[in-house]
């Protein structure tokens, strides 16, 4: 389950470091990713979202993950499944260089283990705190 958490941390780190497209490796081919009120289906649509995020060089962020809850289920099928729920505290850099809390999101990531690798199959998020 630590590997699943590492996938979530790594794609957020990629976004925060300006290399958002590097995060595509965390997602399964058939993954669904919800962000900004939209659903992106499949790696190509998710990659499109990440490319747009990477191109937005004026928006610098720091994602802080908290309150993690992990559940696992082995339903006897081909692959084990894991779900990670957590809060994401999204900080955005201001013109003076300070990072300010922009919003708090409740996120759920679902993972599937297949072919010797864990991949994110579904990511949802909903705001817990209005934009500051």
How would you describe the overall organization of this protein?
The protein is an alpha+beta fold and 132 residues long. The protein is built from 2 helices and 6 strands; from the N terminus they run αββαββββ. It has helices at 2-16, 42-55, and strands spanning 27-35, 38-41, 61-73, 81-93, 99-114, 117-129. Strands 2-1-6-5-4-3 form a 6-stranded mixed beta sheet. Strand 3 and strand 4 (81-93) form a beta hairpin. The longest helix has 15 residues, at 2-16. The model has no long low-confidence stretch (mean pLDDT 91).
How confident overall, as mean pLDDT?
91
Largest sheet: 6 strands, mixed
Question: How many extended strands?
Answer: 6
Count, helices: 2
Report Rg.
Answer: 15 Å
Terminus-to-terminus distance: 33 Å
Uncertain spans, ≥5 residues at pLDDT below 50? none
Q: Could you say which overall geometry the principal axes of the C-alpha atoms support? A: globular
Q: Look at the helices and sheets and give the structural class.
A: alpha+beta
